[in-house]
Amino acid sequence: MSTNPEARAWIRVRADALRHNFSRVRESVGPEAHIIPMVKADAYGLGMAETVRALESEGPWGYGVATAGEGLALRDLGVEDPVIVFCPVPEDSVEPALAAGLQLTVSSVESLDHVITVSGRMGTVPEVHVDVDTGMGRTGFDWRTASEWLPRVVEASRGDVRWVGCYTHLHSADEGEASVHDQWTRLQEILGLLTDPPAGLMIHVLNSAGSFRTPEYAAVAVRPGIFLYGGEIGPGQPVPEPVVSVHARVVHISDAVEGATLGYGATYTATGPERWATLSIGYGDGLPRALGNCGSALLGGVRTPIIGRISMDMTVVDITHVPGVGVGDVATLLGTEGQEVITVDDVAGLAGTISYEVLTGLTQRLPRMWMGLDGP
Ligand SMILES: *Cc1c(COP(=O)(O)O)cnc(C)c1O
Q1: Which of 106, 160, 187, 356 is most deeply buried (CB count within 10 A of its CB)?
Q2: From CA 250, how far away is CA 243, in angstroms rounded?
Q3: What is the pLDDT of residue 373?
């Protein structure tokens, strides 16, 4: 027997909003560009299986993941579209990745050689994307030293591997266009050195922010992530539809007298008679602990301040001025109630982090309740 998933705390995910955000990317980059939704880290915490199911009708070219394990999980779900693994794959994961038909990214001559060795043993010809480092610095062949590595890549592409893609990753597209132009130009310099580029080589550069700021660089394909999931992409840019909301029940209500203290460290003290509501959600669910004494929750359409420190399993809000709250009522920690809204970027801002970390930090204790999964 299992409990009602909405008994304690849960996440609601709107498939229609996810599809809407995908179509906004499509409008921006045009009908020709391939769209590769990034579904790494369980689709930024929302659930990879459901995300893929929700997006199927939108016609993505394939999917991007970070690890071989995530790629294998997509295959287990029955996904037959191309899947690209964007982080360097540890040597002993290359074989299972190739056996599942995953496309690998290569960042060094050594990693290319290893892929060739393994695929040779398996009797397959692997599909690889060449990662060019144009300023991100964490992976990729250095754009400045093409003479050292490009001849080796070209040689490998004459039979040892199928060179299907070439890409770079933007470091500051959410902050403006200038760095995107620089990174694009650096990648073009490399491509310009190819006398006989492989037929159908897929160039892909743009993340979410780039897909809106500089759609002229959509080239062959784009790789959006955060915008699909409802995270903002910088000032002055289109705002995505909210996809995720987070809810928790009121489990206890207390009348505090002046001087009553609250929570670990007793960091909050009632300044007069107050009414407090305890919500069944805490940092063990991924609610950032930094929201203690500064965040808020919505109850009955009213914004109520989070008071005291957030515990692992519980959070307290001040409902002194909110009539009619009872045990069992549903609070919204992230999302909309009436005129009030708490966005994932609001939460991230208060917690001193980014929407990506808030979303991927929501733990498995919160059931993901999908709405509209199989279309309108
Ligand atoms: C995560 C990731 C993206 C998506 O970036 P967003 O900012 O979420 O749109 C694109 N490309 C690569 C290589 C990534 O790792």
Answers
A1: 106
A2: 23
A3: 93
Q: Which residues have C-beta atoms less than 6 Å from ligand 1? A: 38, 40, 86, 169, 207-208, 223-226
Among the atoms of ligand 1, which is closest to the Cα of residue 224? 9
Packing angle of the helix pair 68-76, 48-55 (nearest 10 deg): 60
The CA radius of gyration of the chain, in Å to the nearest whole number, is: 24
For residue 153, how far is its CA from the centre of ligand 1 (angstroms)?
A: 24
Q: What angle do CA 348, 295, 298 make, to 5 degrees?
A: 105
Straight-line distance from the first to the last Cα atom of the chain, in angstroms, rounded to the nearest whole number: 31
Question: For residue range 47-87, what is the model confidence (pLDDT) as tens digits?
Answer: 999 999 999 999 999 999 999 999 999 999 999 999 999 99
Whether 264 is a known active-site residue: answer yes
**Which of 293, 252, 264, 259 is closest to 274 using CA atoms?**
259
Distance (Å, whole) CA 14 – CA 138: 34
- Ligand 1 midpoint to CA 139 (Å): 13
Cα 297 to chain centroid, rounded: 23
Both structure tokens of 238: 């289109």
In terms of DSSP H, where are the helices of the chain? 15-29, 40-44, 48-55, 68-76, 94-99, 109-122, 146-156, 178-192, 208-213, 344-351, 355-361
Q: Parallel, antiparallel, or unpaired for β 274-279 and 315-318?
A: antiparallel
